[in-house]
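Hi R.,

Here's the chain you asked about this morning:
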Amino acid sequence: MEIEIRPVVISTLAIESLENIYTYGIETFSYSSATVFIEELYVRINQLSSDYLHHPICRFIPTKTGIYRNLQHGRYLVIYRVKPERIEVLNIIHSSRSPTKIRATRKIKI
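And the predicted structure, written out as tokens:
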């Protein structure tokens, strides 16, 4: 079965989250560690264009169609929505956040 390649779009909130994760990484670990972590995360997000079905359905946002999925990277969850025409990265949330906070990502518009 051939997987359809779909463009990946990232919400403004997800971009802010990436910036905050990077800043936190620099302050907590080091510039080089934070840079490696965030670069790996960007690569994995870009790979969603073809790997969007390889990750589990997000258990915090159950739907009949399973359009909400999450990619785990370290302790972070990349919450994304599979649409017929594109993949929408909604937010990147630390996995220790409450399920309510994670569920709220379904309301994010791109």
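Residues 8-107 form a domain with the YaeB-like fold fold (CATH 3.30.2310.20).

Let me know if you need anything else.
M.
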